Amino acid sequence: MKAKLILEKAYNPKPVEEKWSKFWIDEGLFIAQASSQQKKFSMVLPPPNVTGILHVGHALCFTLPDIIVRWRRMQGYNTLWLPGTDHASIAVHHVIEQNLAEKGLTREQIGREEFLKIAWEWKEKHGGIIINQLKKLGASLDWTRERFTLDEGFSKSVRWVFISLYKEGLIYRDYYLVNRCPRCRTVLSDIEVEHKELKGKLYYIKYPLKESEEFVVVATTRPETMLGDTAVAVHPEDGRYSKFQGKKILLPLTNRVIPVIADEKVEREFGTGAVKVTPAHDPVDFELGKKHNLEQVIVIDGRGVMTEDAGEEFRSLDRFECRERVLLKLKRMGLLKKIEDYRHAVGHCYRCKTIIEPHLSWQWFVKVAPLAKEAIRVVEEGKIRFIPSNWAKTYFEWMYKIHDWCISRQLWWGHRIPAWYCQDCNEVIVDMEAPQKCLKCKSSNLVQDEDVLDTWFSSSLWPFATMDWREETEDFKTFYPTDLMLTGFDIIFFWVARMIMMGLKFAGDIPFQHVFINGLVRDFKRRKMSKSEGNVINPLDMIEKYGTDALRFTLAALAIPGMDLSLSEERMAGYRAFSNKIWNASRFVLMNLEGEDFEIKEEELTLADRWIRSRLDKMVEELNEALEGYKFYEAADKVYHFIWDEFCDWYIELVKPSLKEKNKTSQGVLVETLDRILRLLHPFMPFITEEIWQHLPPSQKSLTIAPFPEPDKSLRNEEVEAEMELLQKAIIEVRTIRAENRIPPKKKIDLWMKVKKEEEKSLIKKHRIDIQTLANIRSMEIVDAFPQGERLLKGVVGSWEMALSLEGILDLEQEKKRLEREISKISLDIEKVESRLKKAKFLSRAPENVVQETKQRLKSLLNRKTKLEESLRNLS
Ligand SMILES: [Zn+2]
Ligand SMILES: [Zn+2]
User: Fold this and answer.
1) Which of 206, 584, 652, 694 is deepest in the core (most CB within 10 A)?
2) What is the 3-state secondary structure (H, E, C) of 420-456?
3) Is the per-residue pLDDT at 176 higher than 50?
4) CA distances from 355 to 182, 212, 345, 612, 655 (A)
C-alpha cells in the first residue's frame, strides 16, 4: 500500500467544499436504487418553503438527518433521502403582494391569472435558493427525485385525495364560523391561531327592555359586535333574571328588537350573568344561535371592516375604530354602566400576528375524528415512536380533542379546490378535471370554487405522494414507510399528525417509524434568536467564516434530545480549530508515509499500536450505539475526544520513534487508524474527511460509500489499555509537576521512580523511551530510595512515587519568592470568595447556579494553594 500525495499546508474549506459537493452529485452517489434487494433506509426531507432562505433552524433540521443518512449509506443501506420544496401559499402571497403594493397594485386589480403567472415566474427565479443552500450544507439528498408540492403529479394526487375524502363524507362544505386574518385576507385553521393573553377591558352595557323602564346589563370585551346581537341569554335557573326570560329588548344603536333567551350554557359567574349573543362573530354564540334558531347578522367583513348591516353610522369603519365610536355613543346615551380591566386570551394570526376575526362563511372541512383514531392507535402501539418519548404525550393530548379542519383558504397560489357550483341548480360537482355540464340539470353554467387548499393539506401527503403511490411505483414499494422524520415540535400538529392520518388512510401504512423532535436553536445565553435582539446567527456567514464542517459539527454536538441548543460562535471557532487539528495530524501522517510500503504484522505491533486499535474499536461501538439512539451530541463528543486526545495527543506522539525507525507495522497502524477515523467522522464533517481520505491508499471512489467501521472484538485488549493507562498517568504527573513549578518546557530533567510491583517495573523499563520522550526527561531510574541531598519535587501515581531533581533547573531563591507571592495573592482571593459565600443574604438571594459556581471556585482556589505550599516546602 502506498500513500499518494501530501496535503496542502493549511486547510481551506471553501474550494474543498465546492469540489466535493459537486463531485458527489456528478457521480450520482446519493441516488437511491428502487427495487434493490439491499436493506433500505429512507427519509423524506421536510420540504422547505420556496420562499425560504437558510436559517439556523433549517441548518439543524438538515444537518442531523444528513448525519443519519450518511451513516446508514456507509453501513451499506440502500438509502433514499428525498428532497423537495413546499409551495407555501401564504408566504408566497406575502412576497408577491408586497411587490405589487410597491407598484400601488393589489392582487384583485391584476386578477387571478396574472397573479399566478407572476408567482410562477417568481418561483422559477427564487425557488431554488434554499435548494442551493442545502447542497452547500452537504445534505446528501437524491436530487434526481426532487419534488415540488405544486408539480403536476403532486397536484393530481392532492385532487385525488380530496375527491376520495369527499366521496367518503370525510370532506364537507359548511357555512360556519371560522378564524379569519383580516391582514392575510384568508381563513385559518384552529391551530394557525395563536392565543395570547392581553390586557383588555370588560364593558358593561345597559340594554333597555322594550315597553319597560328596566335594563339588562351585559358585559363584553368587544362592544362593536353588539351591532350584530340577535339575543341576550341568561341561565334558566338564575333568579336575578327569571322575570326577563321571554321578554324583548330594544338593541341600542340599532332599531332591532331581540329576545331574552335562557340556556344552561350561560355562565352565571361571568360579568352580570346576562350575555349578549352575536352568532355571526363569536364561536360560542354561533353554537347558541344554531340551537335557538337565531338570526346571524354579519356586521364585520373579512377585512375587519364594518358592513352595511352595522348601520349607516358605522359602516365602512375599521373594527377597532368602530369600537371607539360605539363606546362614545353609548356613553352619551348613558348606557355605558362601567368599564373594568380584564385580562383575556385573544387569537392572533400565526403568520402576521394580526388579531383574528371570527368570520361566518362557506368553507371546506375535513372530518378529522375518524382519521385520528387510527393515528392514535399506531403511536399507542409503538409502531411510531417519538424521540424524546414525552412528545407522544403532547401528540395524544391534541389528538383526543381534535376539531374538524378548515382546509379552504381565500388565496390563489396553491391547489385550487376541485369543486364546481352549478349556477342554475346549485349542484356541487367535485371532480379531477373541470366538468363540461352540470350532472343534475345539464347546464354548462358552472363556476369553480375560488379558494385553494391549506398548504398543510398537500404537505400531509408528502411522504407517499412524492413516491407516486397510486401508481404503485418501485420507489413506493421499496422505500415506504420511511424510517425517520426529523422536525420541530411546533409542527407536530400542523404536519406530523396529519401525515400519520393521511399515510394510514391512503398509503395503507405509517409514513415513518421514528419521529425525532429537535430543540430550538437559541443564542449562547439561551435567549431566543430574533432580529430585534440582534442575536441572530446566520448559518451562511458561519459557513463563510468557519467552514460547513465546523457548523455541522457544532449543531451535532449541541443536539441533546429534548433540549434547546445554545449556539455560540466560540463553539464554532473551536470546531474550526478541530478541523485544523485533524488536517495537521493527517498531514503529518501522510508526510511520514509518502512513498512508503507498509504492512501490519501482528507480532510487530507495539504497545501503542495495540492500544490505539483497542481504543478505536471501543469508540466504534459507542459511536454506532449513539447514532442508533439519535444521540448526536454523544456521538460527536466521542469522536471529538478520540481524535483530539487519544489519536493526536497520544498516539501520534507515541508512534514518532517507530516512524523514525521506519517500522512498517506502526506505519500501517497509523494509516489504518486515520482511515477509520475519517470514516467515523465523515457523517459529521463530510468535506474535510473526503478531502483527506482521497489522499489515502484508494479503496472506493468516495468516502460517502466507504463502509462504516463495525466493532471488531479481536482488536480489543483490556490489558494493553490498562498498561497504557499507567504510563499515561506517569507522564501526565510529570508534566503537571513541571507546569506547576514553571520548569521551562525545553529543560530536560532527571527522574527517579519508586515502583513496588515487578511487572510494573518491567513495563516502565520497556517503555522508558516513551516516558522520557513525552515528559522531556534526560535520565530516568527506578530506585528503592530517592537520592539524598538533592532538592526534589515529588509526585504520586497510584502506588508509584516519583521525584524530579531541581538541581540546576531553577533559581531557588527566586522561585521561593515567586511561590510566596503567589500564595499570598491566592489567600486574598480565598478570603474574598469566602466572605461572599458567608453573607447569608447572598445565599438566599443568589440563584442556585451562582452559589454552586462560587463554591466550586473556592474549592479550586484552596486546592491550588495546597499545591503551592507543597512546592514551597519541597524547596526548603
Ligand atoms: Zn395574517
Ligand atoms: Zn345544475
Assistant:
1) 652
2) EEECCCCCEEECCCCCCCCCCCCCCCEEECCCEECHH
3) yes
4) 8, 39, 11, 63, 69
The set of cell numbers assigned to 664 is 512498517
Q: Alpha-carbon distance 763 to 759, whole Å?
A: 6
C-alpha of residue 348 to centroid of ligand 1, in Å: 8
8 Å CB contact between 260 and 247: yes
Task: Determine the Cα–Cα distance for residues 376 and 378; give it in Å rounded to an integer.
Answer: 6
DSSP one-letter code for 698: P
pLDDT higher at 203 or 490: 203
Q: Provide the Cα torsion 636, 642, 643, 649; round to 10°.
A: 140
User: Which ligand has the nearest atom to the CA of 423?
Assistant: 2
The residue to which cell 504520586 is assigned: 796
Distance in Å, CA 173 to ligand 2 centroid: 18
- What pLDDT, on the 0 to 100 scale, is given for residue 840? 56
Nearest ligand to residue 447 Cα: 2
Please give the C-alpha separations between residue 290 and each of 232, 275, 871, in angstroms, as whole numbers: 14, 16, 89
pLDDT at residue 4 above 70?
Answer: no
- Euclidean distance between the first and the last CA atom of the chain, given in angstroms as a whole number: 59
| Tens-place pLDDT, residues 130-146 | 999 998 889 999 999 99
* pLDDT reported for residue 672: 94
> What's the 822 CA to ligand 1 centre distance in angstroms?
65
Q: Is the pLDDT of residue 827 over 90?
A: yes
Q: Compute the distance from residue 354 Cα to the ligand 1 centre, in Å.
A: 6
Quote the CA–CA distance of 687 and 135 in Å, as a whole number: 12
Identity of the amino acid at 227: L
Read off the pLDDT of each residue in 401-423 and give the average, rounded to a whole number.
95
Q: Cβ of 130: how many Cβ atoms within 10 Å?
A: 21
Give me ligand 2 centre to Cα 447, in Å: 11
Please tell me the distance between residue 448's alpha carbon and the centre of ligand 2 in angstroms: 13
Q: Determine contact, residues 415/159, Cβ cutoff 8 Å.
A: yes
Under DSSP, the state recorded for 493 is I
Q: Sorting pLDDT into bands at 50, 70 and 90, what band is 2?
A: very low
**Averaged pLDDT, 514-526:** 91
Q: Which pLDDT does position 1 carry in this prediction?
A: 42
Å from CA of 90 to ligand 1 middle: 9
Distance CA 624, CA 684 (A): 13
Residue 3 has pLDDT above 60, yes or no: no
Q: In this structure, what C-alpha cell is assigned to residue 155? A: 397536484
Beta pairing, strands 78-82 & 40-44: parallel
Contacts of 873 by beta carbon, 8 Å cutoff, 6+ apart:
none
**How many residues belong to the chain?**
876
- Helix ranges, 197-356 (H): 283-291, 319-332
How far, in Å, CA of 46 to CA of 215, rounded? Answer: 58
Q: Measured in angstroms, how far is the CA atom of residue 446 from the centroid of ligand 2?
A: 8
- Which numbered ligand comes closest to the C-alpha of 349? 1
Which ligand lies nearest the alpha carbon of 424?
Answer: 2
> Using an 8 Å Cβ cutoff, are 551 and 62 in contact?
no
| 57-96 as b/e: b if 16+ CB within 10 A | bbbbbbbbbbbbbbbbbbbebbbbbbbbbbbbbbbbbbbb
Calculate how far, in angstroms, residue 88's C-alpha sits from the geometric centre of ligand 1: 14
Integer Cα distance of 713 and 621 in angstroms: 10
User: Could you tell me the distance, in angstroms and rounded to a whole number, from the CA of residue 347 to the centre of ligand 1?
Assistant: 11
Chain segment 410-419, per-residue pLDDT in tens:
999 999 999 9
